[in-house]
Design a protein that fits this description.
The complex is a heterodimer of chains A (about 325) and B (about 110). Chain A has about 325 residues and is of the alpha+beta class. Chain A has helices at about 5-10, 20-30, 40-55, 60-65, 80-90, 105-110, 140-145, 230-235, 290-305; strands at about 130-135, 145-155, 160-175, 180-185, 200-205, 215, 220-225, 235-240, 245-250, 260, 275-285. In chain A, about 25% of the residues lie in helices and about 25% in strands. In chain A, helix 2 packs antiparallel against helix 3. Chain B is mostly helical and about 110 residues long. Chain B has helices at about 20-25, 30-40, 55-70, 75-100; strands at about 5, 10, 15-20, 55. Classes of the chains: A alpha+beta (about 325), B mainly alpha (about 110). Strand 3 of chain A pairs parallel with strand 1 (about 5) of chain B, so a sheet runs across the interface.
Chain lengths: ~325, ~110
């Protein structure tokens, strides 16, 4: 297996006292806890941090870990038979603490013993719920999409230890999901025991940024650059939407930042109907004027009495 | 070839987990769940804890509460407050997102 340096993950010395370890954990939990963090890789990082803390906060586990010896992070190693005999099977390690452990921890300590007979005596237990994230494109959010998800799910070994094993679940995401939305796939969680129902799979949807459109819930936004003369004189222009191009009438005297709304041209909503489409106008001035353009702008300056700063006195 | 399963939107009454099942699913004790119900963070159907049932939205919320409580050593009241504030932040972020979308970018 590949070695993980739990001290390095928490950023503490191998001699760190318990309260130093706790402080380091708190700092990293604030930074990477998936429920409070905005970091891109928060979930993965917190998984490592939680795993490291699970071991180092517990004197017994920490001592077992220390006795593995010192290796480089990622270096292949195998615990001595002595270690396994003394620790891995001699100790009923870890009631599951809610942290999601990686392979290194699971292979060393197990994720905690499965509890055979815990529900014995005619009781039925519902299977565990699983959680996962799925990224889709904006177009896929509008139309719905099928995905094969590669999950890692806990499973009991014959010895009664919980390990993570790969599992593929094929799902159909309905049209009309929004960014951050949770969906439920019934029965795709863990297997129930004693006739209990299977758990569910909960998915968090992430909609990837689009080259042109921005999405807020079910409303679509498109920034539309227009020229100063189109803004002043009005225009009839063509703009893309998710369903193809549409013509947009810009009234004379348009302003930068003005929103033109096309009702019902956003993405579908779960209960029926669609969000709206907004064209957000942006008046763009040419950076390089040719001599004729320059003279026309100069003529406009001479002819116009328009003062955009008149309200400033 | 595996048949694709439908992923469903969360809706009122979509599942009916008992208090005990919600406790197992979220890792929260029944007493902690009761505090979340008292604060209105979780909505329970049924007039007393023995008859309470919870929807999938409650499962999502309780799981989040369970994670926060375990990983930040929160008591039930602190967990309830954190969940209330996180919902409020999520709503404000939704509004902020709309306003950001509605404004032209500053790049030009």
């Amino acid at each position: 297996m590949k070695y993980k340096d739990y001290y390095k993950i928490l950023g503490v010395e191998r001699t760190a006292a318990e309260d130093e370890i706790k402080k380091a954990y708190r700092k990293l939990a604030r930074k990477y806890h998936p429920d409070v963090s905005k970091e891109a890789n928060a979930e993965e990082k917190f998984k490592e941090v939680g795993e490291a803390y699970e071991v180092l906060k517990d004197p017994e586990k920490r001592s077992a870990y220390d006795q593995l010896g010192r290796y480089q992070p990622g270096q292949e190693f195998k615990p001595s038979p002595d270690w396994e005999q003394h620790f891995a099977h001699g100790h009923a390690f870890s009631e599951f603490s809610g942290h999601d452990f990686g392979d290194f921890f699971s292979e060393l300590f197990g994720m905690g013993r499965a509890r055979p007979g815990h529900r014995a005596g005619g009781f039925a237990a519902r299977g565990q719920d699983y959680e996962s994230g799925v990224q889709i494109s904006l177009e896929e959010a509008a139309t719905g999409v099928e995905r094969a998800l590669q999950l890692e799910v806990p499973q009991a070994t014959p010895e009664g230890y919980m390990m993570r094993v790969p599992k593929t679940v094929k799902i159909r995401i309905p049209k009309g999901v929004s960014d951050g939305q949770k969906l439920r796939v019934p029965g795709k969680g863990g297997t129930g025991m004693g006739g209990g129902a299977n758990g569910d799979l909960y998915l968090t949807i992430r909609i990837l940024p689009h080259r042109l459109f921005k999405l807020s819930d079910h409303d679509l936004f498109l920034e539309v650059p227009i020229s100063p003369w189109e803004a002043a004189l009005g225009a009839n222009i063509e703009v893309p939407t998710l369903e193809g191009k549409v013509r947009l009438k810009i009234a004379p005297g348009a302003k930068g930042g003005q929103r033109l709304r096309l009702p019902g041209r956003g993405i579908p909503k779960p209960g029926g109907g669609h969000g709206d489409f907004y064209a957000v106008l942006q008046v763009v001035t040419p950076a390089d004027l040719n001599p004729k353009e320059k003279s026309l702008f100069e003529a406009l300056r001479e002819a116009s009495s328009f003062n955009p700063r008149s309200h400033m006195g | 070839m595996q048949e694709a399963c439908d992923a469903l939107f969360l809706a009122a009454g979509d599942v009916a987990l008992t208090l005990e099942q919600l406790s197992e699913a979220s890792g929260l004790a029944a007493e902690q769940i009761a505090v979340l119900v008292d604060y209105g963070v979780l909505r329970a159907q049924g007039d007393e804890p023995a008859r309470w049932t919870f929807s999938a939205s409650a499962v999502v919320m309780a799981k989040r509460g369970g994670r926060l409580a375990r990983h930040f050593d929160l008591n039930p009241e602190g967990m309830a407050l954190a969940l209330i504030q996180m919902e409020r932040i999520a709503e404000l972020e939704r509004r902020l997102r709309w306003l950001e979308c509605a404004l032209p970018s500053e790049s030009q």
